[in-house]
Amino acid sequence: MARTVLVTGGNRGIGLAIARAFAEQGDRVAVTHRSGDAPEGLFGVRCDVTDSASVDAAFAAIEAELGPVEVLVANAGITDDTLLMRMSEEQFTGVLDTNLTGAFRCAKRASSKMLRAKWGRMIFISSVIGLYGGVGQVNYAASKAGLVGVARSITRELGSRNITANVVAPGFIDTEMTAKLPEERRTEYRKVIPAGRFAAPDEVAGVVTWLASDAAGYISGAVIPVDGGLGMGH
Ligand code: NDP
Q1: Domains of the chain: total
Q2: Structural domain range at position 104
Q3: Closest residue to atom 10 of ligand 1, CA basis
Q4: Which residues belong to any copy of the Ketoreductase domain (predicted)?
Q5: Residue 128 forms part of a structural domain
Q6: Cβ-contact 30, 66 below 8 angstroms
């Protein structure tokens, strides 16, 4: 059955791969974008997840065009890496505001319509770094670990209404985000990833579409790694 899907940050990178995977299986897909045009063939809404009025307006536009959001993929995220001693409070709260509070704003806005429909899927894109930690990533790791608490609390609050909330924790995926890493860091990471390579965004997308499918209807509050074995045991 075709569903209405929203992928935040679905205009590029992992989010775009996720949006395209849902569209390919026949779902009605909306993506957020902050500037430029929406990707070809997808319904784009301008939205900055740090602004709840912008989130509300985006949901209203999607509801008018495609119907209420049944599958929310909270994917929008940023990094602002620096060592703890040098990290300003603004750098810490800025990353939290996008990655964690942004996901909260979208989940909250989506929840009322999911409750009414007695069906919903929320998928939060976290990171292996959330549980593994990362040098220079106190802000990012905190935001990504926080998503686990968000998904598990939503599971307890809304689980009896046929609403699931899960976390996907990618390892290193080839996108603009990881292209920013210095080559020596990329080489170091490749050495410790059992799979010996970074992944393609499509390898995350397949897990996300599966989590939204009826086959995964009894999975909630789970943290699914897609990391080539990097985070094993964490
Ligand atoms: P990119 O940097 O390629 O894309 C980030 C996306 O997030 C863009 O679409 C961007 O929109 C959007 N975004 C950022 N801030 C906001 C905001 N305030 N409001 C709305 N949208 C926003 O990242 P990736 O595709 O690599 O990452 C996607 C997600 O996956 C992130 O949450 C990231 O933390 C996570 N992740 C990535 C990994 C990787 O190896 N690449 C590994 C683990 C997790 P815009 O184009 O408007 O800037």
Answers
A1: 1
A2: 4-223
A3: 9
A4: 3-176
A5: yes
A6: yes
CA of 160 to the centre of ligand 1 (A): 31
Instruction: Return the CATH number at 199.
Output: 3.40.50.720
Distance CA(215)–CA(165), nearest Å, equals 14
Specify if 119 maps to a domain. Answer: yes
Distance from Cα 158 to the centre of ligand 1, integer Å: 27
Instruction: Examine residue 25 and state whether it is found in any structural domain, yes or no.
Output: yes
Are residues 166 and 122 in contact, defined by beta-carbon separation less than 8 angstroms?
yes
* The model's pTM: 0.98
pLDDT tens digit sequence for 140-169: 999 999 999 999 999 999 999 999 999 999
Question: CA 9 to CA 40: how far, in whole Å?
Answer: 15
Kindly indicate whether the ipTM for this predicted assembly is greater than 0.95, answering yes or no. yes
Asked if residue 155 has its Cβ within 6 Å of ligand 1, the reply is: no
